[in-house]
Amino acid sequence: MKTTLTLPDSLLKAAKKLAAQERTTVSALIEQGLRQILLARKRPNEFRLRKATFKGRGLQPGVSTVTSDQIRDMTYEDQGG
Length: 81
Description:
The protein is an all-alpha fold. It has 3 helices and no strands. The chain has a domain at 9-42. The longest helix has 17 residues, at 26-42.
C-alpha cells in the first residue's frame, strides 16, 4: 500500500544515510520502526527481571531452616548494631 508522509528534512536525510549504509530502503526502515512500536505497545507492561546471579555455594550449613528475620540478623550480627 502506498501512503504519503511528511517528515522533517533532517530526519529524512538521516534515514536515507542509514538506509544506504545498511543497503536497504527508507520504506523498509519505516516499516521496521512501525512494527517495533506496535509490538511494544501491544504489551506495554511487560516486565523483565535481569539475570542477577553470583558465584557461591548456596545457603551455608544451618541456614536452610531459619526464618528470613534470622538470616537478616545473622547477616548484620558483626556490624555493631
